[in-house]
Amino acid sequence: MWISLGQLLALGLLPGHELLGGVDGLDTPLRAVLPGTSARQVGDLGPGTLVVFEPGRLDATDPGTDLAIRFGHRADIAGLVLQRPPTPVPLATQRLADKLGVPVILLDRVDTAAVIAALDPHVRRPEVAGARQLNDVANRLRTARQHPDDLVRVLAATLKCPVALVDGEGRVVGGDAATGEAVTSLEQLRRRPTPFHLDTKERQRLLLQPLVLTQDGPANLWLVARLPSGSPLTDSTRNALGIGAWAFTAYLATEALTAERASSQRALLLTEILEHADAPPRRTVERATTAGWRLSGWHTAVHVALNQSTGRPHDLAQRIEQALAHHGVRASLVERPEGWAFWLTSDTEPDPSDGPALAHTIRRALLGEERGENRLCAGIGHPYLGTTGLKASLHEAKQACVLARTQDVAGAVEHIDAMSVKRLLAGWYGSSPLREAATGLLEPLTTADPSGDLVRTPLAVTSTTSPRRPRPRSCWACTGTPCCTGLSGSKPCWTSTFPGRTNGSPHTWPPGWPDSVTTSQPRALGGGGSPPGVHRLPHDDGARCS
Question: Thinking of the domain 143-251, which architecture would CATH place it in?
Fold first, then answer.
């Protein structure tokens, strides 16, 4: 086990030092710290020796310094320690030290005995340096600001090595980008989260520490430190990352608890305001003031919801707030049944033309935060005055959101007011008995096709057809597959091709449906109607469907 001069300097054991040159030699293993007597004597010392010269023995501006650098290069010493001269060191001396890779350290005052006493214990027992490193990490993390970026900076500055923060897919989310990008073994990141290391082709060692709240919990974030291969501080750095992980998880747990408490308090406060909208109690008004809520003025409420009933991400509300802020809408989302609510307040009644612009802005924000099947939708209420107006606008916003959830589009946003037909529809959609009846009617379709295509088909048909408009001759099929063969004709054909049925094969319809719908106008469905769950495939007279 060994330690290098660069690692000792990183520990701050030589305060106020200046590296004159020879940076490439800082990684040379340090074997001993000895006093120097002359430039020629340097060549007789063993490899890895750090030579300390008292004032008068060797001056940094003398030609003898160049000679000591050359002899030291031949002997493979670890470096020279000299007192800083009153005049600048010749540029040729600096260039020679850089060329030969012999570090030259300048101190304001060189006390040979003090320098040797400070460095020798770490050279003889490198684990002492590791213990000091752990102590520094613990002290600095205790007083650091509890934010991930600050914690990464503290670790990097204390450990004197690059530190990065990466996610479970190896993406760099903080710290040194080069260190994070060096992580190539993504498979190990996805396994059970335990500390491990990776050796790179550049003779570097990457130490990885998972950030988990429980021992068996998932590791979505990892701390990564990069050290030279064979560094004596590997073990202490690994332990320091463990201490850093504790600080990180404490921060995450605190943030989650704080956010949950604040969310609950905001939800309770809004409930109190709505329950006493006519005359809010003094305590409620005081709490609203503390929360930064404005109760007077014209309020335009917005209700945001997720189109799925389960699996709501815990940070989704915060992400939506950030997305809205990015589009110029400052909002503090409040937890509500089936989603979140917020409102915008103005001194004067908003212009009716502001509604479409607001809806467009909110839709852009929602589209930016949708992930896969997690579709977001929103409803906007009409602006009303005061706390009673806030209650009315929130009610309308929730009704509008119910309508938005019925749309099979991403980022759906609806806006309704007191005289809108959409308000009447929202009342129907919000009725539990009607929803139960609709669910029962659609059950045969959802059972036969869990993908939902059979439900979306009649929705598309009713959205694009009109009973007053002549219907073109056409074919229908539930999945768009060829529905008839050998037709000559003048009459449209009706055939069901449910999943698992070959084209035109016999089919048993759900209870209450006709046994056969291979007729030009199915009477059971009412004249010119179409079977639910069936696509229209237009074709010309005399053409064959294939």
Answer: 2-Layer Sandwich (3.30)
